[in-house]
Amino acid sequence: MHRQLSADISWSRVLDRGPALDVYHLTAHECRRLLTEGEASSEELTRLFLNRIAGADRQVQAFLHVAEEEALAQARVADAKSPEERRPWEGVPIALKDALCTKGMETTCGSRILKGYIPPYDGTVVRLLRDAGLVILGKLNMDEFAMGSSTENSAYQVTRNPWDLDRVPGGSSGGSAAAVAAAETPWSLGSDTGGSIRQPASLCGVVGMKPTYGAVSRWGLIAYASSLDQIGPLARTVQDAAALLSLIAVRDPLDQTSLGLPRPLRVPGIVQEGVSADALAGQERSASAVPTPAPDDPLSLKGIRFGYIKEYLGDICEPGVQRAFANNLETIESLGGTCVEVSLPSVKQAVAAYCIIAQAECSANLARFDGVRYGYRATDAADLLEMYTRTRGEGFGAEVKRRIVIGTYVLSSGHYDTHYTQAQRMRTVIIRDFQQAFSGVDLLMSPTSPTVAFRLGERMADPLAMYLSDLCTSPVNLAGLPGLSMPGGFADGLPVGLQIIGPHFSEQLMLDAAYAVEQALNVSVRPAPVAGGAVDGAAAADAEVTP
Amino acid sequence: MTSMPKSRSAGSPTVPEGWEAVMGFEIHVQLSTETKMFCSCPVSFGDQPNTNVCPLCLGYPGTLPAVNERVLEYATKIALALNCEIAPYTIFHRKNYFYPDLPKGYQISQHDLPLGMGGHLDVELEDGTVHRVGITRVHMEDDAAKLVHAGGVEGRIAGADYSMVDFNRSGTPLVEIVSEPDIFAPEQARAFLTQLRNLLEQLDVSDLNMEEGSLRCDANVSMHRPGTPFGIRTELKNMNSFRFLQRGLEAEIQRQADVLERGEEVVQETVHFDPSSGKVSVLRSKGEAHDYRYFPDPDLVPIQLDVAYVEKVRAALPELPAARKERYMRDFGLPAYDAGVLSANRWLALYFERVAGLVEDAKLSANWVMGDFSGYLNAAGLEVEDASIGPETLAELLQLLKEGTLSSKMAKDVFVLMVETGESAKTIVAERGMGQISDTATLEAMVAELVAAHPGPAEEFRQGREKVLGFFVGKIMKETKGQANPQLLNDLLRKALQP
Amino acid sequence: MISREEVEHMARLARLRLEETEVESLQDELSRVMEYVGCLRELDLAGVPVTVNAVNVSNIFRPDDEGPCLSREEVFANAPAVERGHFLVPRIG
Fold first, then answer.
1. HSE-up of residue A313 (Cα within 13 Å, Cβ side)
2. Nearest to B162 among C13, C61, C90 (CB)
């Protein structure tokens, strides 16, 4: 039996609706509908989520900072506008991973070294969200500098998995995934360097997407590994994830590696003209102003070729994960998709290459935290060297120091070629393997994580085991490909994620496919057992998908 | 006994006999773009500290560099002017080290794929020979912030209580030029640097002000016996004038020679030259070798320059000193020395060409631009572009000289008056009645009157006493306050005194 | 096996003060990680080009146009120590 949150919020109290509706049904699209149809004000919705945070987050601990005043002020701005003036998503609440710089709002990246740091600028995605009128509820917990797969490396608090409070939510965007799973926010933004959106999405039973490298601007994302980092959405439905991605996927002159998406995104499963046009509203985001046409039947996968990655089958994954994945394949075939086995031999070495590249880049990216211009500074240092070494020694946590040392080692003289250059070559091999695979199939599939959510503390003593949490996800970052994790079922009452990987800039196809699978599986909006009306452990076990 | 190979330093008065001194240079040129290399803060000098800064050049988390296109253009100009091959594929690397003036903890520089490689500069030495200095590479990088040391001896790092950082300079674009170790005497070094600066001046890509740090030179110096391998080198840092640099090199060569003559070894270290004592001292030991851990900067994408781009930049290059000197000799018939002096400085060359074009006498214009005009600039401590006497103004004076209104002597006096009063040559000549009397009728009348008044001396001249002519010239000059055209006066007098 | 000296050298390069226990555990962990990534060393990848960034673009520039700077107040809002309009650091020597 899992230890669970108790109910402490009444949805019907706010909206005066029947008890059949609970907080979990308040997706971003539902929020938007309520606002558009005048059934709720932004302030009501914002208060609802703030109350939910006040109640549930005592146990989940997803939020590092709740921006109550700012959020309510923003909500009132939205409410003061006429429906015609209001932008499509104006007034809908959201929460952000604390790696995203928010002007005037504390941004710590989960680190002691940035305690109290208030950025003087907004990251590009934050600016886009503000421009779109979204209400920022606050900042979400994470592994320090996004280094970790459990959110236990935060300098501030340990976030719990809403499905089982004794288990981790995954990481590093654990706060982003847990907050969405616990319905403390309809959706959130995270960042993904080796699986940091997808793995927690998988462990918390929500949808999470890492876009193609370059689809979203990294300006204002505190860097872990620059060539791997991407910002992406977490949500309870594929539609919400698609809509959020469409808001942030913009080419940005401030990030010279950013390209935006080649065509505007269409939210799958929505045929109303107005909604498709919304995806285009306001922003010039691509050469082509028209999304790809919607499939004739959004619930069908006819004609789509799926490849399941051979190297991730068998004992690499837990039996429950294997079973859920097998069920997912059957669902896909039942929807008209074809599934074939595909081999990606290089993924075995991918985690090693990932380890070297990510750590090398982080060793340089984190050099700027030196106590000179912002952030923590050790006091009473006799000289500069002591100030540096103590500031960084005291300001960084154990995992961050470990990775900086590894990164420094692989770049240092005598080790560069054997480690770093070799890893960069391996990266080319991985890219070629994926290209080869995509010559035969449209999309690839695998479990997102080899295991369901593990127990708190279980992997803290073993850094290697922690790195292996990214086994199925980090090759995707190395190749710069888009990857999506969606709820694929349950094992032992805990969510199991299905990962879909596509070629560069195939986000639309991936989201269309994920939508069809989601509708067939019907697990996405199944609530995490943290609030009124939620399933308990037994019910969750019943919810395991049967073919 | 075999004879020792000849030292390439032989002939230099400042390299001890029996030794060969080897010098190579790393020159940093601050580019005079509007904005910094990777952000849109203005590039400026002398503003209030920490006012031209943004999150990027303060190294704030989450910021990303965006390459300024003009930096690439300027750097390509420099590389082409130094005859480098432009790399078809070039990338930025991170150079990692900690220092308070380095906000990101790394410098964005170029490593094994620099913009330009394999160039050279032909340096004309004092004896007229041409010495080719290889240019190893030309690359782009961002500048560090400025440190001010406080407490202790103000301005010096040693003994300071604390230091203060001004990030205005942080992120200013730099081009680093690295030379081959092709320089064997301090005099050669100075010629190389002077001519390099002249060349850069033509390109109009930098202020090139050593005092303000927009041109910075570091020298690597080593000594060895001719025919033996290079010695251990030291680095002479950051001199703020070419004169000090030459003196610093001389002092360091002497110091190394002394060390080696004693049978000791030179230590690889950085040395500092103190112009007031004329001595070099060790700045800091490179005891703990740096490990910069260069790796490609993943925030920046590669630069791939096609032939069309390179040729476009090349076509827009101004005429460089060597080519200009050739043209002055060929088209204007100037001697090599004059052509060299006038072509070395871009502004002087432009000035000269304008004057010569107006006066239509290149030799006369060259003499004046190099002579009185340059003398006036030196005396007033002015740059050509700041001179109050513009090329049109000088040309007006030279016209008066050329058509005989002024003698050479008078023109020099008028020039001095032009400088003093700011008046034009014509105004001065008119107001002060300084015009030379070249009017034949006026002078003829004066001469006739004079000869008639002095029949005695006139008779003497007719008898063959040539020097009596001087008596008459003197009288007329006195009467005309020296303004009579001497040649015309001579002719008229001889005619009038003929038997 | 990574030596203790190597760990200490890396910590020096990275300006990290490590506690005695941290040095020991890092020596062990670094050794294990390096052993794990050692599988790469054995691969013959000669002739395979390196990948720095998986998205294949080049020649992205920005125009040389001036933009806004931070105000003095913003510049020093997060500064640990300020002196006469400068960021102050302890003595360097």
1. 13
2. C90
